[in-house]
Amino acid sequence: MALQEYKCPNCGAAISFDANTQTMLCPYCDTSIDVAALAATDAGLEQEQTSEAVDLQYSTEAWSEEEQQSLRMYVCSSCGGEIVTDATVGATTCPFCDNPVVVMSQFSGVARPELVIPFKVDKEGAVAALRQHYQGKRLLPKVFKDENHLDEVKGVYVPFWLFDTTLDARMAYRTTSVSAWSDSEYDYIETSYYDVEREGQMTFQMVPADGSSKMPDTLMESIEPYDYSAIEPFQTAYLSGYMANRYDVEPAAVSRRADQRVAISLKEAFDDTVTGYATVQRRRQQVATVERAVHYGLLPVWLLNTSWNGQRYVFAMNGQTGKMVGDLPLDTRAFWLWVIGLFVGIGGVIALIVFLMWMFA
Predict the structure, then answer these.
(1) Domain limits, the chain
(2) Do 129 and 123 contact (CB within 8 A), yes or no?
(3) What is the DSSP letter of 14?
(4) DSSP characters for 59-97?
(5) CB–CB of 70/88 below 8 Å?
(6) pTM of the entire structure?
(7) What's the burial of 232, exposed, middle or buried (CB within 10 Å: 0-12/13-18/19+)?
């Protein structure tokens, strides 16, 4: 199967997309090429012809049919090395010559992305952001920042289904209004009950749901939001120098999750319009999807793997905004000292209040 590799027109070296300049940059002669200038390279993407499958039966035992369906073999156009990947990898780096390559056939036909958000944060920025992420964490073991080993930093274009959805909603609420007054004999409280109704439509655009079974949904949702004003029509040039997977989860499988997200936002927006009452209780709700469209896009994610004390810690960072999420180890001794100090502090405040009350009683 064919690999697409972009070459520098001046020195012939492999070039890749640079997040800082937003251009294709040669690491040897610093030649910079606008991505739009490479658009013609993608014009033949739909007509890409797949070569004959490579025979993987090179040992005494044949590959199973399941393995042949899940693996792909490619030949690097730069050094001729053979690269074996799974069926969803669309961009990677040759392990022999380290040149970035794009697996064109993985993005042909129905698998071709429609949109892409380019990386805005480069590898050095991702590593610096991880170090910054450690700062200010009082319960992080002090030695972790110095002794943890950064095992792997990968820039990955993750496949996402982006849903445009219009919802029709009707909401009914029971509300109360409370009035209080007094006369020379009694104090009065009057509670009035009202039925309030709201109805209307709301449209949501570009609601993301990741289309990769390899990426945890909660992790991908945690690094949101993306700035969709920077979205671009897909070009393979953006993938050069990064890894990329095509989707292996169909949009129908994730549409329910996207529907749940927009339904929650819609209900909260309707609730916010019911104001001026003492209490508000939503009693009935009817939400129906009126219109839906879906786009296939690639969004930038930095994955950083670190290890410490025999454990592995994975961090994900939004490759556009720099938002970082991930689990950190806990210094149990510092935690318990913090808890004890908290209780001692609270106890001291209570004792001081009691003492003052006794002094001025």
Answers:
(1) 16-112, 123-330
(2) no
(3) B
(4) SSSPPPHHHHHHEEEEE-TTT--EEEEETTEEEEE-TTT
(5) no
(6) 0.69
(7) middle
Q: CA-to-CA distance for 118 and 157, rounded, in angstroms?
A: 9
Contact 138, 182 (CB under 8 A): no
Residue type, 296: Y
Phi then psi dihedrals of residue 10, to 5 deg: -95, -50
- d(CA 217, CA 54) in angstroms, rounded, equals 34
Per-residue pLDDT of the chain (361 residues; tens, 9 = 90+): 444 566 676 666 677 777 888 877 777 667 777 777 666 555 544 444 444 444 433 344 554 566 555 556 566 666 655 555 655 565 566 654 556 666 655 555 556 788 999 999 998 998 888 888 777 666 566 656 666 677 788 888 899 999 999 999 999 999 999 999 998 889 999 999 999 999 999 999 999 999 988 888 888 999 999 999 999 998 888 888 888 877 888 888 998 889 999 999 999 999 999 999 999 999 999 999 888 899 999 999 998 888 777 778 888 999 999 998 887 765 555 444 444 555 656 655 665 565 456 555 5
Token duo for residue 267: 């209900």
Find residue 174's DSSP bridge partners. 195, 281
Q: How many CB atoms lie within 10 A of CB 190?
A: 9
Contacts of residue 193, defined as CB under 8 A and 6 or more positions apart, other chains included, come to 174, 175, 176
Q: Give the SS3 label for residue 297.
A: strand
Question: 34 and 54 in contact (C-beta within 8 Å)?
Answer: no
CA proximity to 97, closest of 161, 182, 25, 5: 5
Q: CA-CA distances (angstroms) from residue 57 to 54, 63, 87, 163?
A: 9, 6, 18, 42
d(CA 301, CA 323): 10
**DSSP-assigned beta bridge partners for residue 73:** 84
Residue 220: strand pairing partners: none
Residue 99 phi/psi, 5-degree rounding, is -85, 140
- Tokens read off for 209: 């749901």
Tell the residue number behind the tokens 């209900």, with chain if given.
267
